[in-house]
Fold this protein.
Amino acid sequence: MDCCKKGDTLFFKQPPSIAGFAAVGGKKEGEGPLRECFDLLFEDNSLGEPTWEKSESSLQRYCIEQLMKKTQCTMNQIDYVLAGDLQNQCTASAYTLRGLDVQFLGLYGACSTMTEGLGVASVLAAGGMAKRVVAMASSHFCAAERQFRTPLEYGGKRTPTAQWTVTAAGALLVEPEGAGPFVQAVTFGRVRDFQVTDATNMGAAMAPAAAETILRYFQDSGYNPEQFDGIYTGDLGEVGSKLLLEILEQNGLCLKNHFDCGTIIYDLENQEVQCGGSGCGCSAGVLAGKLLPELKKGKLRRILMMSTGALMSQTTALQGESIPGIAHLVEISSVPKEEQL
Amino acid sequence: MDCCKKGDTLFFKQPPSIAGFAAVGGKKEGEGPLRECFDLLFEDNSLGEPTWEKSESSLQRYCIEQLMKKTQCTMNQIDYVLAGDLQNQCTASAYTLRGLDVQFLGLYGACSTMTEGLGVASVLAAGGMAKRVVAMASSHFCAAERQFRTPLEYGGKRTPTAQWTVTAAGALLVEPEGAGPFVQAVTFGRVRDFQVTDATNMGAAMAPAAAETILRYFQDSGYNPEQFDGIYTGDLGEVGSKLLLEILEQNGLCLKNHFDCGTIIYDLENQEVQCGGSGCGCSAGVLAGKLLPELKKGKLRRILMMSTGALMSQTTALQGESIPGIAHLVEISSVPKEEQL
């Protein structure tokens, strides 16, 4: 047993180390407050490709290249790549992996994919089943708009509760041991559906799942929120974040250190992104570009990171279905043993 | 270390046990040679639902209910459900899991999802991170036809190389130890693309990936094909199966005991399914409905099971992209120790 399971939460005896991280982004991301956090930024969101779908694959490719460069690894040293995205049949990831001769596990967790992947990568590393695992996720505004809403050329009006799909990819390298940051614990999500049917209000649809995962984690761990430098959600945006705090308060948990990657990645006042960023690339970019570097430097010592996903499709939306949400949580610390914190 | 990794293949020291299995199918599956193998068969493929997408979710729901009944488990005893399907954004699985209060890891491996899920479930069980994991996959002919090709009402003519998407779901319960059958080893797939662009010839697109995984497994294990009662692929169909054997022969491996679930599940002479069955439900149904029961009875003693997936989407097909394939392999035996075989 390389871990101890309390309730739903896996606590690793020897916490896996996140040996490297890389984030690449597009134009709007380069104009936002995190411009200095990305390893690469593209002025032209097409990345020179003829379709937005291929552009997203290119984003992933550049991201994994940056990761290999920064960690001085080569792809043949990687045991597994776990990756996912929002495209139908996850083709951004599949077509990226076509060019990399490595074992591939495709994940689908909508915008929760980054922490789903980091969680499974940690399981593989902690279980002694891999020496090096890459977890990666991406999204692309133009590919997502066309697929889930309307083509860009249509010029559809955005609602006030809408969020802006982030054009970014994030990739992490996970190893069984090392210099950290360290994955201390993982709580995988359960699907929650509070009957939200408005596909332009994803934050509201995902908030109940995020609340449920946080409550389970604190119940399982016995910790309290003040013991963390920050509790980060993936892409609830402004509306979803407010709802999250309300639901938690109704359940007796008061969060004063909650941050949402969707409101960190853009300047909400000036970038016309309505309620904030969304997409797998949102939490992937913020985690790989900002939070992990800060953990590495010791500027952050201990955080909870929870990517949040809305598990609907355009078909289910057109069929009038409500939107189920899910949220996978990972506890990450700057030092290997929690007692040292 | 609960496993030994040779090359790409994980060999489990304490092989996880497949404690239960259930398969449910539709009308055509009930008219085929495996009619006695399914736990439930539906005459009406709508299962009483207003959309094909919901019908597929119902298939999954019935399947997991059968699994719980047969194993005398309840959902609150299950640590994780790993599930996937072919619908855009994997909504068949997400909407099924909405009704089950359990931790959910969404997978996307196209038709390779059954063994991807069984592989990850085995990793969780062997790593001491779960007591009970369910791996599940499904497909539905009508949902897949509309999404990937044309709506049924269109009456599109099928090509001779086409395959028939199986309407079925299969679910397995994996535990760290037990009475078997036992998962001895897992080799996860690498993406292979031999530039097939014909979306009505998926078997040809997937055969190179299947060949590559088999070759890696035999290289890693040192075994030879004669040591197995059968080497099963997911849904290569007649064309893909021939190509697989050709590619393997070119690489010095002669398979005399290869079977493809796509040609087992239907009567190819009389059921008008062209080259055979396909879809996640094809290998899931055959594994859960036929192969695992035969392993349990000792009628089969040792097999390789390898679901095969074509990682394209309708969008990539319309954009003229070729079709990448992947194949995940699982070695399953009737007794816990390979030496006893």
About this structure: The mean pLDDT of chain A is 96.
